[in-house]
Design goal:
This protein is an alpha/beta fold and 250 residues long. The chain folds into two domains: 2-104 and 219-247, 3-Layer(aba) Sandwich (Rossmann fold), CATH 3.40.50.720; 110-167 and 176-216, 2-Layer Sandwich (Dihydrodipicolinate Reductase, domain 2). The protein contains six helices and eleven strands. It has helices at residues 12-23, 56-68, 82-93, 110-122, 145-160, 222-233; strands at residues 2-7, 27-33, 49-52, 72-75, 101-104, 128-135, 179-181, 184-190, 196-204, 207-215, 239-242. Helix 1 packs across helix 6, helix 2 runs parallel beside helix 3 (82-93) and helix 4 (110-122) packs parallel to helix 5 (145-160). The longest helix has 16 residues, at 145-160. It is elongated. It starts with a strand and ends in an 8-residue tail after the last strand. 39% of the residues are buried. The mean pLDDT is 94.
């Protein structure tokens, strides 16, 4: 049995992870850690993999603490920057246990991971690309980590193919074009009734390709979370890994 502890267990996603772990035949729930609980209670003696679903302001410190305690971590919290990732890598290099692993996923929904992958594959063949992400109004970050990851993947694919900068003739003080990430415009919608949705729009003269992924409820993320837990528990992925595509054999 894989022993799993959940950090952020009282949150919406954390509670869903607790239910998914308890329902899995090959896992057992070791600990549920909330905001007022001591994360130091999670150790290699009681936990094989910790799952961290909290908020961006707390996630880095949580992950660094777990690494220092010798625990492998699956992270679903968004808001990760290159500087934060570098701190995690350094912590792993200096960690107390050889072969320690941290996995961070911008999105655990298989549909979203595939949409991101397909967008990067298609991007070199189109003149223009934009990303629209749509979420519920309680989401704390905008744009979403998934949209940022998608934009970065599109930009990297276009750059590797020698693509020109995308055309954009927008002018004027009232112009609204969203956030620009590596040259890709990303637009965030926060609307009651939505859960987690993303559209990638790719265009050439006279044609358009739309790639869309929709997660209607939090249960859609659980197969990806459990896949990540099983993969880390199985070993062979020491260090920092970002993106569920690394575990999907794409």
């Amino acid at each position: 049995m894989i022993r799993v502890s959940v950090v952020g267990a009282q949150g919406r996603m954390g509670a869903s992870v607790v239910e998914a772990v308890e329902a899995a035949d090959d896992m057992e729930l070791s600990a549920k850690v909330g905001e007022q609980d001591d994360i130091a209670s999670i150790t290699p003696e009681n936990t094989d993999v910790a799952v961290e679903f909290t908020v961006p302001s707390a996630s880095l410190n949580n992950v660094l603490a777990l690494v220092a305690q010798g625990v492998d971590v699956v992270v679903g919290t968004t808001g990760w920057t290159d500087a934060k990732l570098a701190q995690v890598t350094q912590a792993l290099d200096n960690g107390p246990r050889a072969g320690q692993a941290v996995f961070i996923a911008p999105n655990f929904a298989i549909s979203a991971v595939l949409a991101d992958y397909f967008a990067a594959k298609a991007a070199p063949y189109f003149t223009s690309a934009e990303v629209i992400e749509l979420h519920h109004p309680d989401k704390v970050d905008a744009p979403s980590g998934t949209a940022i990851h998608t934009a970065q993947a599109i930009a990297a694919a276009r750059a590797a193919a020698g693509g020109e900068p995308m055309p954009d003739g927008t002018q004027g003080e009232a112009a609204s074009r969203g956030q620009v990430i590596d040259g890709v415009h990303v637009h965030a919608v926060r609307l009651q009734g939505l859960n987690a949705h993303e559209e990638v729009l790719l265009g050439n003269t006279g044609e358009q390709l739309v790639i869309r992924a929709d997660s209607f409820e939090r249960s859609s993320f659980m197969p990806g979370v459990l896949l990540a837990v099983r993969t880390l528990a199985g070993g062979g992925h020491a260090g920092l890994t970002v993106g569920l595509d690394a575990f999907l054999d794409l």
